[in-house]
C-alpha cells in the first residue's frame, strides 16, 4: 500500500481493494422503482441545459434549466427533498443524472456534441 494516492490518510488494517466489473448499460440497466426518468438536452441558442422529469406514463411533470451540471442536479435534488418527492430512489439513477449533466455541460461549451445515453 505504499505510494498510495492517499498517502496522508491512515490505512485500515483490514482494507481490501475491490475490482469493479465492467458495467453494461444495456444488460445491467435497472429502472428506478419510482418509474421516474429524465430527458436531457442542450439548447445551444440560449446556452442552457434542459432537464425534463418524466413519470412512468411518459408525461413531463417538471422541467429545469441551467448552465452548469452542478447547478441543475443540486436544484433538482433540493426540489425533490423540499417537496417530499421520490424521484431518485436508486443511487445509480442519481449518479446517471450527474454523469449525463456533465456530458451536456461539455456539449453546451462546444467541446463535444451531446447525445443522452
- Describe the biggest sheet? 3 strands, antiparallel
Oligomer: single chain
| Largest sheet: spatial strand order | 1-2-3
Outline: globular
Helices and strands, with pairings:
Elements: E1 37-43, E2 48-54, E3 60-66, H1 69-82, H2 91-108
Helix pairs in contact: 1-2
How would you describe this protein?
27% of the residues lie in helices and 18% in strands. The chain is built from two helices and three strands. It has helices at residues 69-82, 91-108, and strands at 37-43, 48-54, 60-66. A three-stranded antiparallel beta sheet has the order 1-2-3, with helices on one face. Helix 1 (69-82) runs antiparallel to helix 2 (91-108). The longest helix is centred in the last third of the chain and has 18 residues, at 91-108. It is globular, with a radius of gyration of 18 Å. The termini are far apart.
Short description:
This protein is an alpha+beta fold. It is 27% helix and 18% strand. The protein has helices at residues 69-82, 91-108; strands at residues 37-43, 48-54, 60-66.
